[in-house]
Amino acid sequence: RERGLKLKRVFNPSFLNVWAQHWTECQTTMDRVASDALSIRYEAMLEQQAVEMARIFAWLNVRSDRELCEDCVKQATFKKMTGRDTGDPRPLEKIRRGVAGDWRNFFTLSDGKVFHEKAGENLIKLGYEADDRWLDQLPSELALQQT
């Protein structure tokens, strides 16, 4: 948490391997039980939070109305949860920036290759990436700085 600390890498390969495997297993399980599960995408929550809250309440068979959904959204803003504005880059925080797709900013090329080997098919299938060319945009090392 030292101010000015520069990070060249966030993950180590063994952790990333396990994380990719767990993520893939979770996605595979969701595919198997899709009729009994509710899938919520972070991107959708950012774009239409009240609509997504209504979907969650409906799936849970819980009474809700527009006012309740909007109140839930107001009570769970990024600012309220973190004390920061959306997009505030603090790489060592447990909650990153509240920006869709920000995960890419924490991968080096070698990290991306490890993750892609285990989970790349799911990244593409779920629409997070169009193809494996996402790896071409990753740097050899990061330049994250703790502020």
Strand order of the largest sheet: 1-2
Mean pLDDT over the residues: 87
Can you count the helices? 6
Main β-sheet: number of strands, strand sense, barrel status? 2 strands, antiparallel
For the record, give the distance between the C-alpha atoms at the N and C termini, rounded to a whole number. 9 Å
Assembly type of the shown chains?
single chain
Structural class: mainly alpha
What is the helix fraction of residues, given as a range? 40-55%
Describe this structure in words.
- α1 runs parallel beside α6 and α3 crosses α4.
- The protein has helices at 13-32, 42-47, 49-59, 66-75, 78-82, 109-125, and strands spanning 6-7, 144-145.
- The protein has a two-stranded antiparallel ribbon with strand order 1-2.
- The chain contains six helices and two strands.
- By secondary structure, it is mainly alpha-helical.
Topology (SSEs and partners):
Layout lengths: L5 E2 L5 H20 L9 H6 L1 H11 L6 H10 L2 H5 L26 H17 L18 E2 L2
Antiparallel strand pairs: 1-2
Helix pairs in contact: 1-6, 3-4
